[in-house]
Amino acid sequence: AKADPILVADDVSRSFGGIKAVEVEHLEVARNAITALIGPNGAGKTTLFNLLTGFDQADTGRWSFDGQRAEKLSAARAARAGMVRTFQLTKALNRMTVLDNMRLGATGQQGEKFTVALLPTLWRAREKAITEKAMTLLERFKLDTKKDDFAGSLSGGQRKLLEMARALMSDPKLIMLDEPMAGVNPALTQSLLGHITRLREEGMTVLFVEHDMHMVRHVSDWVVVMAEGRIVAEGPAHTVMHEQAVVDAYLGSH
Ligand code: ATP
């Protein structure tokens, strides 16, 4: 058991038809650390993210976030509690500007559940503060010059940065990134890794899904390996990579 985990989950399961996509007995995510969740295609990583963040309903399972029971929280409530995630397929609303995408991040609405109808409410409340915060974050992610462009006009890598920036608008304690480096060019990958490390320096907890186990070596404090819905190994990157169960999981998938 970890000293002060921000997330603790037990007996989390989810089946689709006859297939057990997730069957996790126990998961702890250490606070203020970077944890990588890796595993071959179809291992259940995204499904586990969906369950924990209220985007899908678990068949069984209990989990707590930051000391509070969290298994019944909707996605928006989980975000307000401080648990925010990004998506594998970026859902930045393509026909909205970069700045409006950021402003919506402040509402705690996430992913496909974003709605433009929320903006007017936001205006009346805290427009100036929210816009200032959005611009500060856009500068940090070098997207400030793109603020009036449609999100759909950004490159794939820039959209990954926007997703991360937008997730930060609601001041999360735990940020869950689903394949932040997938399809991103090498230069931008380095930049993304730098941003992830900075989040930890600022006191946040990061849990990210990554398909490529070599990618996680430099950036994660702890690696959790999933295969066929289960956690098959965990530990520091340099040791876990060599465990037989991990080698088997990856070899078995090709
Ligand atoms: P990848 O790296 O390919 O995204 P993953 O580890 O994230 O893989 P999941 O996407 O969680 O894996 O999929 C786990 C299993 O659950 C797979 O067998 C997948 O086909 C199945 N699955 C996931 N979502 C659904 C769904 N909505 N309906 C039916 N089956 C699903």
From TrEMBL:
Domain ABC transporter: 7-253
GO cellular component: plasma membrane
Keyword list, A-Z: ATP-binding, Nucleotide-binding, Transport
Recorded GO MF terms: ATP binding; ATP hydrolysis activity
A Pfam family recorded for this sequence: ABC_tran
SUPFAM superfamilies noted in UniProt: P-loop containing nucleoside triphosphate hydrolases
CDD domains: ABC_Mj1267_LivG_branched (cd03219)
Highest taxon of source: Bacteria
Keyword Metal-binding: no
Name this protein carries in UniProt: ABC transporter ATP-binding protein
Source organism per UniProt: Georgenia yuyongxinii
Lineage: Bacteria, Bacillati, Actinomycetota, Actinomycetes, Micrococcales
